[in-house]
Design brief:
The complex is a heterotrimer of chains A (555), B (340) and C (134). Chain B has two domains: 38-278, 3-Layer(aba) Sandwich (Rossmann fold); 291-339, no CATH class. Helices cover 50% and strands 12% of the residues of chain B. Chain B has helices at 3-11, 15-27, 32-39, 59-72, 127-136, 152-159, 174-179, 199-212, 227-241, 259-276, 278-305, 307-321, 327-339, and strands spanning 47-52, 77-83, 92-94, 109-115, 141-145, 162-167, 188-191, 248-250. Chain B has a seven-stranded parallel beta sheet, sandwiched between helices. Chain C is α/β, with parallel strands linked by helices. Chain C has a five-stranded parallel beta sheet with strand order 2-1-3-4-5, with helices on both faces. Chain C starts with 8 loop residues before the first strand and ends with a helix. Classes of the chains: A alpha/beta (555), B alpha/beta (340), C alpha/beta (134). Chain A binds chain C through residues 115-116, 118-119, 121, 126-131, 134-135, 199, 203-205, 243-245, 331, 333-336, 367-371, 444, 447-448, 451, 454-455, 464-465, 473, 475, 477, 479-480, 482, 551, 554-555, and chain C through 16-22, 25-26, 29-30, 40, 42-44, 46, 68-70, 72-74, 97, 99-101, 116-118, 120-122. Strand 3 of chain B pairs parallel with strand 2 of chain C, so a sheet runs across the interface.
């Protein structure tokens, strides 16, 4: 049948069979739409994918434009890395949790740091009061890092570290721990988040002003391309942008706009796009809207490949491949009937797998209530294992491709994200758009709309605004002992007494001089780390030289 | 605390009392006229500086840095930051304080955020009163940050001793602002975010329109490298020439660059006003405008509150609607009724 | 002329180092849309800064949000400082990821209400309207 016939037949069905049915039984809503306001039609047919050229727009797995995945065999070769984000209290306790997770079959580590660490304060800084060890592990110096990875061979695991403003310090500590284990830096596998732009826009753990932060980032790119070649030097993150309230389209657009800014900065710093391009990685969110999410992942891959090839002239295939980690959406979890969250996480994890993610964190059911308990973390990991081993969805590559709906949606998300990126380009790129509050305002608008949809009942959240029950709040939630703060302060005191003060002073002075000049800071940071300078001391030196970022936009 | 106690504590700059007094004045709470009468004799000592300019020009950051600069000279600063009130809900998001929070633990800085509360001028109707409270409480400087849209520039000119007009390259509307005739009210011109492209153009445009108005002294060479020199030199020149020539200063409020010069220029302007006896003139203008505003307010209230006039107004309005009389005639009739 | 211009003034603050401000911003906006004047002080505020701002702004309400688990330390510091400065007529409410078992202790310290995830902004508005102390 040709397209003309199809059009006619479709028209006939729409006004005939379908129209009559709607007249008798009206649909549930007048308009169906996804998170980004894209209308969902009652039916998708070949007419919706007319614009799509299989070879140009989809291609084959492992080939440009990577719509169908970055690896030729995908999960037929090996499953995604199951990587649960964990870390709390002291390095000792987190070390125990990591060993437990590895024993349970987890295949990669993901380190959560507490807020003082993320903002470059030692545990005994006044602003650290009440925060030490709360949302992650407290790391004040190399000594804590040694404890954190005690008994975990760093040549055998890949480690992802959610660290941004002080990423260079934590990476240096990781390298130094590996040295002590006898593992050379070029054998290390892992990722640092190192994505400062989304901190300004959505997550809030920034330290330095943008220009200086971008220097730290490009220093890392340069250092690692020579010394830690298997390390993912950045994880450009849409996750937190989405958590802050963005839509799926905004998540893709703002993340790739940030990515463009990093690539530009590195090229401006004199690096070749193919030297660092292959080490760029991404981090996305997985929400409940299964098809929109799958389409989102595919659209992001295609759009990034086109940006890297056409805009930046990348030649290396690896520079064009958008590899990404996924975490299920924390903001969709409810404190009400928390066991329902297991089902939400399952749907979200399925979206990530159908979207061909490289690694995955599944949230625990109790995260709207507290830090996840060990039982909840195990269920979350089991969710991934069930999808991998029992569901069969991992047995063929990109199984939803060719669905009229999925392909039409992939195309539309890519278009809409590209439009956004163009607007951001017109403002002067992501840093300028953040400075003017454009990105923040867009995110906030979406967050507010979402909340109002829930409150008006237009959007139903099971157990929250419908299907409620009277329930007791669950017990057995994980609590961090408030004494962790004191313990960490004592450890710091001992460290300061024990270490060689003169070496520390000298290394910090050298770091300061380097910061004032234009040297790559990584070697100086490594020296300071090896001398057991604390994170707060190193970040403090840079605070003195660089100043601190103050948000300038109220939104 | 009764109001006498609040007043006496506020006059000795006790923060809680000052803040409560501001609320009384802002909300026009019962008895606020007595309070006002009690503090008014103590006003007139502060140097009132208005900071105005389009949204996105960095006014809050500039105010933050100006306060820091004056503090470093041992002066105290009261800040009034005005943000728009939503005409639909009556609510407001007051976000200027965000950029000034580091001063919150400094007893020498008092920051108060205000919504315009239905007033269209870019200031709130109560701004003048709030300025008076801070003045009476003894702050050396009272800095007002306007909403930055609408008629703010005109209003701030009648309230402040010194008006700093902030411009920024690349907003696209710089030319409009200049064309709109607001140049006359600027005593100090600040071109903020001077690292942005287009800064020279903005400076040149301001200078050109000042030249047209015959206000720019013009013999200081390119304003780019001469911010500090310009401020002082202009001040001297102004005093000598018995006229103020508004300096054009370039700043990076974010880093604080050029802010000291802005403060210098504001101080120089005040010195010039004093030397010139122009301060008396300015303050007379403010008093006149306040008095007229309050009087018309009271008259309007008289109209709105009084059943007899309200009834008459309605009757006249019908006549106007039926085209029996014109609205001016109706207005005159109503005024007769109120005045009599 | 009796208190004609009275508006409920609320300080919305993020104490501590936690950068997750989606909830704080949504609440700020909802309070504004309910006709209140909302002063937003941004991230990384110490209890001292929050209290100083609350007093200068003469707010009726201080609304804080913490998702990092530091609430048991930071919330009570704010109410304690308000009391010390004679401003205990300010209604203090908190929100965030706060385990049920912590709530009674926080209420004892003067946190009038704790809004946990899933609370509608409408409920928050209603609570504030019904409970402001002046």
């Amino acid at each position: 049948m040709n397209q003309g016939d199809l059009k006619g037949e479709y028209g006939r069905w729409k006004s005939g069979t379908y129209g009559k049915a709607c007249a008798r039984f009206p649909e549930r809503r007048e308009r169906f739409e996804g998170s980004s306001g894209i209308e969902v039609k009652p039916l998708y047919t070949p007419l919706d994918v007319e614009r799509i050229d299989y070879l140009d727009d989809l291609g084959f797995p492992g080939e440009y434009p990577y719509t169908r995945g970055v690896q030729p065999t995908m999960y037929r070769g090996r499953f995604w890395t199951m990587r649960q984000y964990a870390g709390f209290a002291t390095a000792e306790e987190s070390n125990r949790r990591y060993k437990y997770l590895l024993e349970q079959g987890q295949t990669g580590l993901s380190v959560a740091f507490d807020l003082p660490t993320q903002i470059g304060y030692d545990s005994d800084h006044e602003l650290s009061a009440g925060e030490v060890g709360k949302v992650g592990v407290a790391i004040d110096s190399l000594a804590d890092m040694e404890t954190l990875f005690d008994g975990i061979p760093l040549n055998k695991v890949s480690t992802s570290m959610t660290i941004n403003a002080p990423a260079s310090m934590l990476l240096a500590m990781y390298i130094a721990v590996a040295e002590k284990q006898g593992v050379p830096a070029d054998k290390l596998n892992g990722t640092i988040q190192n994505d400062i732009l989304k901190e300004y826009a959505a997550r809030g753990t920034y330290i330095y002003p943008p220009k200086q932060s971008m220097r730290l980032i490009t220093n890392i790119f340069e250092y690692c391309s020579k010394n830690v070649p298997r390390w993912n030097t950045i994880s450009i993150s849409g996750y937190h942008i989405r958590e802050a309230g963005a839509t799926a389209v905004q998540e893709v657009a703002f993340t790739l706009a940030d990515g463009i800014a990093y690539v530009k900065a590195a090229i401006d710093a004199g690096l070749d796009v193919d030297d660092f391009g292959p080490r760029l990685s991404f981090f996305f969110n997985a929400h409940n809207d299964l098809f929109e999410e799958v389409a989102k992942f595919r659209a992001a891959r295609r759009l990034w490949a086109r940006i890297m090839r056409d805009r930046f002239g990348a030649k290396d295939r690896k520079s064009m491949q958008l590899r990404f980690h996924t975490q299920t959406a924390g903001c969709t979890l409810t404190a009400q009937q928390p066991d329902n969250n297991i089902v939400r996480v399952t749907l979200q994890a399925l979206a990530a797998v159908l979207g061909s993610t490289q690694s995955l964190h599944t949230n625990s059911r109790d995260e709207a209530l507290a830090l996840p308990s060990q039982d909840s973390v195990r269920i979350a990991l089991r969710t991934q294992q069930i999808i991998a081993y029992e569901s069969g969805v991992a047995d063929t590559v990109d199984p939803l491709a060719g669905s009229y709906y999925i392909e039409a949606l992939t195309d539309e998300i890519e278009q809409k994200a590209a439009d956004y990126i163009q607007r951001i380009d017109e403002i002067g790129g992501a840093p300028a758009a953040i400075e003017r509050g454009f990105i923040q305002a867009e995110i906030e608008e979406s967050a507010y709309r979402y909340q109002m949809e829930i409150e008006s009942g237009q959007r139903k959240i099971v157990g929250l605004n419908d299907f409620q029950i009277e329930e007791e709040r669950p017990s057995g939630l994980l609590k961090v002992d408030p004494a962790v703060g004191d313990l960490q302060c004592r450890k710091l005191e001992e460290l300061r007494a024990k270490r060689d003060g003169a070496t520390v002073e000298a290394s910090l002075a050298a770091l300061k001089r380097a910061a004032e000049g234009s040297d790559n800071l990584m070697p100086h940071i490594l020296d300071a780390v090896r001398a057991y300078a604390t994170l707060g001391e190193m970040c403090g030196v840079l605070r003195d030289v660089f100043g601190e970022y103050k948000p300038t936009v109220a939104y | 605390m009764d109001w006498q106690e609040i007043v006496s504590r506020a006059l000795s700059r006790e923060v809680r009392a000052v803040s409560r007094l501001i609320s009384i004045v802002e909300d026009r709470r019962a008895g606020f006229e007595d309070v006002y009468a009690a503090i008014y004799p103590r006003t007139g000592r502060a140097h009132v500086i208005g900071i105005t300019g389009p949204p996105g020009s960095g006014k809050s950051t500039l105010v933050d840095k100006i306060a820091a600069e004056y503090r470093s000279r041992g002066k105290t600063v009261g800040i009034v930051a005005v943000d728009p009130t939503s005409p639909f809900t009556g609510g407001a998001l007051l976000g200027d304080r965000l950029r000034m929070q580091r001063h919150s633990l400094d007893n020498g800085v008092f920051i108060r955020s205000m919504g315009t509360r239905g007033h269209l001028g870019g200031l709130s109707r109560a701004t003048s009163g709030v300025v008076d409270v801070l003045d009476a409480a003894g702050y050396d400087y009272v800095v007002i940050e306007t909403v930055g849209v609408g008629q703010s520039e005109v209003e701030i000119a009648s309230l402040a001793d010194t008006v700093a007009l902030v411009q920024v390259p690349g907003l696209g509307d710089d030319i409009q602002v200049i064309k709109a005739g607001v140049m006359e009210i600027g005593d100090v011109f600040v071109v903020n975010k001077k690292d942005r492209p287009g800064v020279e153009r903005v400076v040149a445009e301001i200078r050109m329109s000042l030249d047209l108005a015959g206000k720019y002294s013009g013999h200081h060479g390119p304003a780019t490298a001469m911010a500090a020199a310009t401020a002082t030199a202009t001040a001297t020149a102004a005093i000598a020439a018995n006229a103020w020539h508004p300096p054009i200063l370039q700043t990076m409020a974010e880093s604080g660059e050029g802010v000291a010069e802005v403060c210098e220029a504001c101080d120089a302007h005040m010195r010039c006003l004093v030397t010139d006896n122009a301060l008396v003139e300015r303050r007379f203008r403010r008093a006149r405008s306040e008095t007229m505003k309050i009087a018309s307010d009271l008259i309007w209230r008289g109209l709105a509150d009084d059943a007899r006039t309200l009834g008459a107004a309605e009757g006249l309005a019908w006549k106007v609607a039926r085209r029996e009389i014109d609205p001016y005639a109706a207005g005159r009739d109503l005024r007769e009724l109120v005045v009599s | 002329m009796m208190d004609e211009g009275r508006k409920i003034r609320v300080l919305v603050a993020k104490p501590g180092l936690d950068g997750h401000d989606r909830g704080a911003k949504v609440v700020a906006r909802a309070l504004r849309d309910a006709g209140m004047e909302v002063i937003y002080t941004g991230l990384r505020q110490t209890p001292e800064q929050i209290v100083a701002a609350a007093i200068q702004e003469d707010v009726d309400v201080v609304a804080m949000s913490i998702l990092s688990g530091a609430h048991n330390y930071l919330f009570p510091r704010v109410t304690q400082l308000l009391r010390e400065r004679g401003a205990d007529d300010v209604l203090v409410v908190g929100g965030g990821i706060i385990p049920d078992e912590d709530i009674p202790g926080l209420q004892e310290c003067g946190i009038a209400a704790v809004f946990t995830p899933g609370t509608s902004t409408g409920d928050t508005v209603k609570f504030i309207r019904e409970n402001i102390k002046r």
